[in-house]
Amino acid sequence: MKTSVAMCTYNGEKFIEIQIESILNQSLPIDEIVICDDGSNDKTIEIIKQFQLEYPNKINLHKNPINLGSNKNFEKAISLCNGDYIFLSDQDDIWKMNKVEKIIEYFSKNESAEAVFSNAELTNDNNKKFTNISLWDSKGFMENQLSKPIDLYHHIKFKSNVVTGSTLCIKQEIKSLILPIPDIQKFYHDEWIAIIIASRRKLEYLTDELISYRIHSEQQIGAKGNLNKNRLKNHLVMGNHILEHTTPKKYQDYARLSRIYFRNYLKFKKVSDNTKDDTPINFKEIAESNLDLFKKCNESLKKANPIFYFFRTLTDKIRGKRQL
Fold first, then answer.
1. pTM listed for this prediction
2. Residue 323 CA to chain centroid, in angstroms?
């Protein structure tokens, strides 16, 4: 059994050293770290090369001749990994010492799983945990409070992505399913992988916080560590409604649901328009399902409060929002 890390870097000199150290210091050692750099012009390459001197057979650096962007860079890194298990890594987090061990142990006990992700704690530029809100909470995935079972595929299709790539590990055997990764603005590699494997009912998770996920101003995709109680409660309510554990009763709940469904309709329509017909998932069908749910929510809004619905529809029209 061999393990790989697919890491993407770009001007990461500030945090790359502590991240690589945390990967090298795992209780279950990693066999190879494949690093694809996307044109760094700071000291990132210099730092990586210092590690290569100490670990020449473990760290493989590939410098892109042109900037590929996040999705295509991760596609390249994953494609170059030889391990039976491939861990995805950003350049600015810190892995807990037992991350690899815990995830490999989970795979060994759940052989049908094709991808496993975990939760994470949120830290700042000084490597300090600054909130009790977890990464999942900040992304609106209220796993510890949602009614069980949680249908991850349903959640991703109709609410939001639950997987952060830097916590994800995939099996080598699924590379043919997930590659190539489409280069679509605001539709990232982790969501692409997550929805494909979730559709196969082979995406699983550990509730452990296995990395320190850094929140800082320079990161491409971040999380929010300052959600108030009302927003967290709204995420929980919407999650249970979308997973069909509960039924909306308030006008406000239908209004929130309609916004979510319309947002997802636009997103998956864009994915459908920018991918080939032989993709593992019918994104056009997912988009249309979200559109149908959006229309049903609007009908419920109209019944719940016709006056509010009229002014909401008028305001949306004036602002150009949620227009078909």
1. 0.92
2. 28
